[in-house]
Each structure stands twice: as structure tokens, then as C-alpha cells.
Task: structure prediction
Amino acid sequence: MATLCIACGMPMEKAEEFALGDRSRNYCRFCARPDGKMQDFAEKLKSLTAFIVRTQGLTSEAAQEAAREMMSRLPAWSGK
Ligand SMILES: [Zn+2]
Result:
């Protein structure tokens, strides 16, 4: 059964999809810093905004809104 990343909602099944390839972590490699710690809210908002601009062609303002909206539904960021 897949584990959902608490920070972006991506389903993780293979070990390499987990941060540092460690299945005991509850966030994915895209949400990890190079040292393996989870990115903070500002870092994730920035990378998710850039991802949305790239994949959906929104303006950065609209993409940031969409990113905030997506993140507000994820356990890592509830209440932010
Ligand atoms: Zn993630």
C-alpha cells in the first residue's frame, strides 16, 4: 500500500521515492533537503509554485495561490 507524502500528497511505493530512500519517513524525496530533512513551508511553497508555473503555465501569482490551496489540504501544513 502506498504511503502519501505529508508535504505534497505524492503516493510513495518504492524506497527511492521516500526521502533518503528510507521507507520509515513520511515525506518524499521531492520534499527533502539535500541533508534529508523536510523542507519548510516557505521552501515547499516556492518549489511547488515553480512546478505549477512550469507544468500549467500560470502566472506566478496564480500559481502561488494554487500552491497554497494544495498545501493547505496536506497534513504537514494544516493551519499554515
Ligand atoms: Zn512530497
User: Anything to note?
Assistant: Residues 3-77 form one domain. Residues 6 and 74 are 6 Å apart (CA to CA). The chain has a mean pLDDT of 95.
